[in-house]
Amino acid sequence: MAAAHASAAATLSATVLGPPAWGWHGRTLGHRAEHPVHGACWLRLLSLPAEKAGGKLWDGTEQAATAFPTAVRRPTLHAVHDWSSDGYANRAELTTYVDEPVLAPDPVLRHELHLTDEWFENIRGSLATIAATPTDRTAVRQEWISRAVPQYTGRPAPRITEWTCAHGDFHAANLTTGATILDWEGWGLAPRGYDAALLYAYAQLAPATATRIRHELAWFLDHAAGRAAVLIVCAELLQSASRGDHPDLAEKLRALVYECTRARGHPN
């Protein structure tokens, strides 16, 4: 992948700077870069066996570039370069470099944040705009919900009737201190409130921040659809925990399952 990234940089006339940034389980490789026209950029490589290339995660960034208005803060896509070699399909994406720190180094928030009212106002606006965006892409499927919620939460699966567009990976490692939203590869239709529920669930190890998120994003969470979204997100993250990801979050997620189902009955 390092060799493929260097090849993409040469093709796109980008000069790579700084250390590498590996994505989830090494599926992507990113570097800061300088471009003679676009200036400071981010060059990201996705590399997959040729038979697995294509689909939602492959073209998510490219499709997001034209699907959402500029009111949604996100990096600008400058160029895409696709090629195949040695049985692998490669996609390189050159975007603007966002010179703002992310809220956390990984999705699970393990320290309290001191976020401004303006930050939450911008996030609420972005979430509302994303939710109102028409799409035929799918981020979460009812078939998965029906199978995973009982298996990982012990609760009946809700039948979703309200589907809206979602970023699909809305957590502290994909959000900056300037309310810019990163990593758009997985966006698509999801249960109403899904993005807010994901941010809230991932913040459970920082209880003061989780409480603030719940309060500031109440419009997305404090209704039956929002409680269903929280239950679904808990199932998703508990499934990940069963595979060895963020095991320290599992106990808090089980408590959240109990909380979101006990007070007002099942969130169906």
TrEMBL record:
SUPFAM superfamilies: Protein kinase-like (PK-like). InterPro entries: Kinase-like_dom_sf. This is Aminoglycoside phosphotransferase domain-containing protein.
